[in-house]
Hints:
Layout: E1 5-8, H1 12-21, E2 26-29, E3 43-46, E4 69-72, E5 90-91, H2 98-113, E6 138-142, H3 146-157, E7 161-165, E8 178-180, H4 184-190, E9 193-196, H5 210-213, E10 220-224, H6 233-242, E11 245-250, H7 263-266, E12 270-272, H8 285-299
Parallel strand pairs: 1-2, 1-3, 3-4, 4-5, 6-7, 6-9, 7-8, 9-10, 10-11, 11-12
Protein name: Dihydrofolate reductase
Keywords: NAD, Oxidoreductase
GO molecular function: NAD binding; oxidoreductase activity
Amino acid sequence: MSHSIIASQLDAQANQQLRTHLPDHEVIDIAAGQLVLEAPADIFILRPINVRGQRVDTPPPGWPWGLKWVQLVSSGIDFYPDWVFHGAPVTSGKGANAEQVAEFALALAFAAAKQLPGLWVKDADWRLTPLAPLRGRTLGILGFGSIGQSLARKAVALGMRVTAMSRPGQAIADVPAVEQAASLQQLFANSDHLVLAAPLTAATRGLIDRQVLAHARPGLHLINIARGGLIDQQALLDALDSGLVGRASLDVTDPEPLPAGHPLYHHPRVFLSPHTSAISEDGYPAFLDAFIANFHRYREQAPLANLVDTARGY
């Protein structure tokens, strides 16, 4: 195999790191959103396409352009149109941002327990406020991939009880001191804080509906760092209004961004962030490490890691 040409929508710094690590190959900078290649690339590193209201349901002329491999930047595949998966093998960025997303989810639990940022004082009106501990509280995790497992280890180290659930009928990974929930209803009934870390698929869209929320432990703190489409948002608003759910910390919504005036923007028990938990000021170190390892597999014609299974949905 001759040298490879990698067309990459990563930022300039990340692409330069690829050039440093792969000096015998060519890396071409491609702007995010650009779906035209002017060089005969065999690999395309692709950012999400169907985002912020944009949809590109028709493939660009000539797709798949002779590509031999498409690498997605994100771990989920729901922000990519179907045509991306018709052609070359596609791999995802699954696991590359697990640590920082897990840290963010844990920070949201701390913020709820310690009443941040509302606790900060701006004048001499000091009121002593009893704060909840995390130690001894139960953290539920729905979706026990790399993010869920990283979060579980961190929570166990803090003295939290952790209960988790993966796909129905599938045992969770063996992480010390983590219990497997028997059902989604049990997971919601037993959790003080509950993190959604499951992929969005046909089977999980709208999974967190009125029936599931009806089983929530009163005052539940629901955290979503996965995909907004997992939740029936009107059902969540009703559960917040009734007090059944005490707080919702949402890094994701459906759609993104929400339209102006949406009730989730204004509800006093909703805390929104702009789908930022996976973005690190350190850039893409784990993603680049995984890509380079996979690149060597590709050059050796060995099976690629993190191959996408569209039937499964990730």
